[in-house]
Amino acid sequence: MPITHQDQLNLLTDILSNHQVDCCGSVSECEQLERLVKSLMVNTNINENVKNILQEIYQYSQHGIQSSDLDRHIKSNQERLSEWINNMNHFS
């Protein structure tokens, strides 16, 4: 059974929240972010403001996957993580 776009947004926000709170994460979490963003970007029910945020999150996940120090990458994006989480909660 496929998950709804709201479930996908909730999962996306949960992963970002974990990165923000824990200041660490895994490559597989970044890959999951990437898959969620790709799926959400093609969904016509998603608010355009959210799509702009999703593009930023996609870049964040790409850099995380390629980073030689993922924890440092996450720590250096703490402010952006907070903004994304707040905005996702606001628009979704």
From TrEMBL:
Alphabetized Pfam families for the sequence = YtzH
- InterPro entries in the record, alphabetically? YtzH
Tell me where on the tree of life, at the top rank, the source sits. Bacteria
Protein name in UniProt? YtzH-like protein
Organism, per UniProt?
Answer: Bacillus methanolicus (strain MGA3 / ATCC 53907)
